[in-house]
Amino acid sequence: MNNDRDGLRRCRDCSEWKPLDDFCANSKRPEGRGSYCKPCFNERSKASYARRVRAKFDREVRAGRAVPEGHKYCSACDADKPFDAFPRNRADSSGYASYCKPCHNTKTRETKERLYGGNREYHLRRRYGVGEKEFQELLAEQGGVCAICGGADPQHLDHDHRTGWVRGILCFNCNGGLGQFRDSPMRLARAITYLRGTTWQRALIHPGVYQMCSPTRGRPPSRRF
């Protein structure tokens, strides 16, 4: 019996004629589509999985939960919620994570605490490949101050964005400054040259009397009367 007709195919399970796009891909079948439409194929897959679980583990697979259209079930809080209540997750067939946003955040914090001892250790390990122990050792080598300005209690781990290697520990301003200059020695050198050539200085012209002297270029500071 011919199951194909004018771009349509009859599903072997539901016997309905449907467009080829409604059938699962199968390179071994004509037109590259299988014999079962996608809903019937999914039902067959679930039944096959249940048989394998029953045979291998001697237990039954729980029936899927009926969820309203546009909603997803969060097993952590045992509630059906709209899709926008879940964070995005491209790895899931629905496009959303398994837990709603509050439950997702709670479980993320618990996982970080259990595996890394806290969010800071997780952040250091994942982004820089070091932990709080290595951070404190490096800070001690710097004398407990920012490696650039010498400010106390720096908290930012600086790294080479090209190689990923950790370079030192900086304060917020110095770390941000390097980022603004794109870690470029040339830009930093030109900035130093610029400052030296445009900074106004005091010159002693009479005992106790000073005058602001400017470099050859630039304009004098504005005066307020």
Mean pLDDT: 88
- Let me know the number of strands: 11
Count of distinct structural domains: 3
Counted by DSSP, the helix tally is 6
Q: What's the quaternary structure here? A: single chain
The end-to-end distance, rounded to whole angstroms, is 101 Å
- CATH homology-level superfamily of the largest domain: His-Me finger endonucleases
Q: Helix/strand-derived class?
A: alpha+beta
The string of secondary-structure elements, in order, is EEEEEHEEHHHEEHHEE
**What global shape is seen?**
elongated
Classified by CATH, the class of the largest domain is Alpha Beta
Which regions have little confidence, pLDDT < 50, spanning 5+ residues?
A: none
Could you tell me the radius of gyration in angstroms? 33 Å
What is the CATH topology descriptor of the largest domain? His-Me finger endonuclease fold
**% residues in beta strands:** 15-25%
Strand order of the largest sheet: 1-2-3
**Any guess at the CATH architecture of the largest domain?**
3-Layer(aba) Sandwich
Largest sheet, if any?
3 strands, antiparallel
Helix content: 25-40%
